[in-house]
Amino acid sequence: MSLISISACAQDFASRFLENHRPDNNLTCEIISPKMIEKVMNLDVNDDGGMMNMISKLKSMQMVTTQVNGQKYYKEALGVLDKNSGRFEPYLSFEGKSENFQIMVRKKKNAILELVMLMCEKDDFTIINFTGNMSKDFITRLAKSMDPKAHN
């Protein structure tokens, strides 16, 4: 069953990254449903319904994580994005002394079909990969929810 889901999602960034790192026991991958996305993003279900509507347009979310060699994986992921620069375009980035954050998007015409978020802090590295139909507002809210300063 897992082989079917991997081949069905083979076009997304997270699946490609994992395929290039097989077998690598340092990386874990979780596939998250839209309902779980609501919880991951600490959503207020009583918001104007806008965010819930945005989440309903998502097809999938994959999260690849490691707590080992984060900088190495981050640089490799950036390399994959660079090789696919015709497919992905930069959306937002932040580089600090101990943390890096990058959002890239894949568009078809004006629709955002895929979002790749790379986060690295010391040895921790995370890829969050959304597929579906996303708006700029969704990405802005997502970026704010991932900002560590917003949770202090």
Text of the CATH class: Alpha Beta
Beta strand count: 6
Largest sheet: 6 strands, antiparallel
Strand order of the largest sheet: 1-2-6-5-4-3
Residue share in helix: 25-40%
What gross morphology would you assign?
A: globular
Name the poorly predicted regions.
1-10
Give helix and strand order, one letter per element, not per position: HHEHHEHEEEEH
Rounded radius of gyration (Å): 15 Å
CATH architecture assignment name: 2-Layer Sandwich
Q: How many helices in DSSP terms? A: 6
| Helix vs. strand class | alpha+beta
Note the gap between the termini.
Answer: 41 Å
Briefly note the CATH topology name.
TBP-like
> What's the pLDDT, averaged over the residues?
80
Q: How many separate domains?
A: 1
Strand % is 25-35%
Structure description:
It contains six helices and six strands, in the order ααβααβαββββα. It has helices at residues 2-8, 13-20, 34-40, 50-56, 70-83, 136-146, and strands at residues 28-32, 58-66, 89-95, 99-108, 111-121, 124-134. Strands 1-2-6-5-4-3 form a six-stranded antiparallel beta sheet. The radius of gyration is 15 Å and the shape is globular.
